[in-house]
4-hydroxy-3-methylbut-2-enyl diphosphate reductase (Paeniclostridium hominis), 279 residues
Amino acid sequence: MEVKIAKNAGFCFGVKRAMKMAWDELEKSNDGIYALGPLIHNKQAVLKYEENGLRTINEVNDVPTSNRMIIRSHGVGESVYIESDKKGLDVIDTTCPFVKKIHEIAKNYYSKGYKVIVIGDYKHPEVIGINGWCNNEAIIIKTIEDLENVELEKSNKYCIVAQTTIHVDLYNKIVKALSDKLEEVVFNNTICSATKVRQEAAKEISKEVDMMVVVGGKHSSNTQKLVQICMEYVPTLAIETVDELNEEDFKNYNTIGLTAGASTPDWIIEEVINYIESL
């Protein structure tokens, strides 16, 4: 059975950087280190780190005073830094530089009196973090339908940013709709370049195969976007690990395409490839 792998699959720059920074800190630590929320949206990778001393917590208050705490690649709101400083925590900030740039944009325009609009999922930690840099007053738009329930004043000034992993086509549709509604608006296309390339690669390979396998965390936003893209072209399986596959899944297909989310480690991808090729 032939497997075709998308040109861009697996760890992106931001995740790779965060994982290395966290691992380096674990190697220097004698008594473990705390992570504010899951390090990345891949439970298998997080488990490996936890087995080596990483302790995942949900609140800054869960970290004992004067300990070390990792801020994950998704980023956090400004209040987390203030709270951490008050507790005397040694913060290891692995926030993706592309996400950090959005924080700067949101804070800057909010301070100038702009209303910030975030195109993204209000439940996603990255979007929650961005909102935390404009006093948690941002308007969050996840779908084109959300615009019907949002009150926008033409007299206001608006600043638009996007979750780094949002679907490019969705972003363009929402931007067009907002352009028609607003007079004074600054658009910032903050979709990560790696996200755009990964989505385009998934689309292209989907046109060349009989079915697609998308490997990545069930809670990974960028992974689920890849699933949606692939499903537009061919039957698609979304899995976290090779254990979710069986021979029956592939009996009607000859050429299998494979892509993976930005939080998917190479070793998980390789296990899936080896399994499919062995059929």
